[in-house]
Amino acid sequence: MKSFANIDVKSVREAVTLLQKLHQEKKSAEIVSGGTELLQLMKDRVATPQYLINLKTIPGLNYIKEERSGFRIGALTTLTEIEEHKGVREKLLFLSQAAGEAASPQLRNAGTIGGNICQRPFCWYFRSANFPCLRKGGGICYAVAGDNRYHAILGGGPSYIVHPSDTAPALIALGARIKITGPAGEKTIPLEKFFVLPQVDYKRENILQPGEILTEVQIPHPKPGSKGFYHKVRERQAWDHAIVSVSTVVQSKGGICQDAHVVLGGVAPIPWRAAKAEAFLRGKKVDEGTARQVGEIALDGARPMKDNVYKIGMAKSLIQRALLASV
C-alpha cells in the first residue's frame, strides 16, 4: 500500500472544506467511512490517495429516523443497523433483505449505506493493478475481448463495468432521494439521478463533484397496496457480488397494477431501472403472461458479450418471479 496521511474530521463542513482545498492544491484525497472497499483498492494499488478524510469521526451521521413522510438514514449508518432496524424490517422489508445480502456479516458491521451506494465498479480488470483499463485512464476495456461472464449486458460501452451495490437498486425501487453536501451547500436529488453511464462519461461513476459528500438517504413510506420484492443471484452463497438482482415495488388494487418500479442490479454500469416495462405494467392484471411480457420488455435492447448471454434469461426469470410474488 502506498503511504498516505489520515485526517480525522469533526464535521461535514470541515470535510467539504478540506476536500476542496486539497483539490485546488492538486493533491489526491479519498473519503473513508467503513473502509471495507477503499482499503482493499489501496492494497491492490488501484486507489493511491495522498490523503484519507475519515468521516467516522463526525458525530451525528449515523441514524435511522422514521418520520411522517418516511425514513431518513444517515450516510454512516451501517448495513447491519439497516438490516436489523425494527421499523425498516416492518415497513421496508426488502431493503432490510438487500442490506443483509451485501458482503459478509463482518463487512456489514463496518460498511455504511453511503459507502455501499458509492461503491466502485465490479470488474476484475478495473480492480487489478495489472490492467491499465479504460476506466483507469487507459485506452481499452479489456472485458470486450476478455473474460466477460460477469460484465454488463445493458448500458455498456465503451466500458462494460457493473455497479455492485446491493442496496442501491432496492432504494431506487422505493423512490429514495439522497442529500449531497458540498461547497455550494446542500441539495437533494432522486437516487437514480446520482449514477453516470460510461456512454455519458466513462471516467466517472456518479455526479459527485470535488468537495461533495453524500450525507443522507431519504425513503418515502410505500403507498397503500404496495408490496416489495428483492432477490439476488450470486455464484457463491457466501460473500459475493450479485450476478443478477431484482428489486420491485408493485402497488396494486384487485390484482390490477396501479404503479410499479422494476430495478435490476448486476447487469449494467448503474442500477438499471426498466422504465418501459414499468409503463407497460401499469393498468394491467399481474399474472404469468403479463409478468413474462414485462421481463421481455425489460431486457429488450440487452447486448451481451460472448460469456454473459446467460444473464438475459436469468434477469427475465427473476422479474417474473418478483412480479408474481408482489400480488
Q: How is this structure best summarized?
A:
The protein has about 325 residues and is α+β, with helices and mostly antiparallel strands.
Describe this protein's structure.
The structure is a single chain. The protein is of the alpha+beta class and 327 residues long. It has a domain at 226-325: Enolase-like, domain 1 (2-Layer Sandwich). The chain contains twelve helices and twelve strands. The protein has a five-stranded antiparallel β-sheet. It has a four-stranded antiparallel β-sheet with strand order 9-10-11-12, sandwiched between helices. A hairpin with a 3-residue loop joins strand 4 (64-66) and strand 5. Helix 10 packs antiparallel against helix 11 (288-298). The chain is globular. The model has no long low-confidence stretch (mean pLDDT 95).
Shape: globular
Kindly report the average pLDDT value. 95
**Helices and strands, in N-to-C order?**
EHEHEEEHHHHHHEEHEEEEEHHH
CATH superfamily of the domain at 226-325: CO dehydrogenase flavoprotein, C-terminal domain
Q: Helical residue percent?
A: 25-40%
Order of strands across the main sheet:
4-5-8-6-7
Strand content: 15-25%
In the CATH hierarchy, the architecture of the domain at 226-325 is: 2-Layer Sandwich
Got a strand count? 12
**Structural class of the secondary structure composition?**
alpha+beta
> What is the name of the CATH class of the domain at 226-325?
Alpha Beta
